[in-house]
Amino acid sequence: MSSLTSSIASRLRAAADPAAKASYEWYFKGEVSFLGVRTPNVRQIFRETAPPIREYPVSRAMADAFTLLRARHAEEKQVAVLLLHRYRRELPADFLRRLEPVFDAGVREWGTCDGISARVLRHLLLRSPAECRRVVSWSRSRYPWRQRASAVAFVNEARHGKHTTEIIRVCERIVDNPHRFVQLGMGWVLRELWLAEPDAVLAFLRAHYPKISREGLRYAIEKMPASEQKGLLTEHSTGGPKACRARYRAAS
Questions:
Q1: By the 8 A CB rule, do 43 and 54 touch?
Q2: The pTM is what?
Q3: Is residue 145 pLDDT above 60, yes or no?
């Protein structure tokens, strides 16, 4: 451990609350280990401990962030995300390639996944076409959390109607994975894309009903009018719009 990661780990353990630990681990059904440090306290510890950028080169910051991402507890991973976000403008061109094995080894839940997606990947995909393509390529990964990240990274852009082609490409790939949080990540980005590109979202949903989970569909249609939500849920239940119309004609 570096002096920074050692100091942060020490301060996190000093701030741990057993009641918070029990609550968080119950919520995550024991799949994630926590120290029991509340998020505002994690952020305060980071602000008070991490040195200014001008005093700490990006190479050391990346090494420390990667160490923290591989750590056992969720709060340490939260600090890793905060550290990478602070250096988002200084990260080297090969950062995503170097992040991938660390991400696959250290990310096991949606909190860390979404933190990296929103605070780091989102900025990189806007920085260059090559980095955007690299984020899109995560949709082909065999790791479900990297697949989820490939969708969640585009959430902010989706609501503004940007990168629609890339978003649909990502969704076409990850829709084949029934993993709950991959489906929900897909639903989330489609929900935001619907605000700008409703026809594209409707076409995607209707083309892929058999592969979309009910929960994923509910995420995707959450911002639609209630009547449209009801119609899409009915179509999903009955095998698609053609089957739905056929059942309606038979009942008439």
A1: no
A2: 0.91
A3: yes
Please say whether the dihedral angle defined by the alpha carbons of residues 64, 67, 69 and 72, taken in this order, is positive or negative. Answer: negative
List domains and CATH numbers for the chain. Answer: 1-91 (1.25.10.90), 117-252 (1.25.10.90)
84-106 tens-digit pLDDT: 999 999 999 999 999 999 999 99
Both tokens of residue 243? Answer: 């089957």
**How many other C-beta atoms can be found within 10 angstroms of the C-beta atom of residue 133?**
12
Please return the burial class of 233, using the count of CB atoms within 10 Å of its CB with bins 0-12, 13-18 and 19+.
Answer: middle
What are phi and psi for residue 192, nearest 5 degrees? -75, -35
Q: Are 167 and 135 in contact (CB under 8 A)?
A: no
What does each C-alpha distance from 156 to 32, 128, 141, 169, 190 come to in angstroms? 27, 17, 22, 17, 11
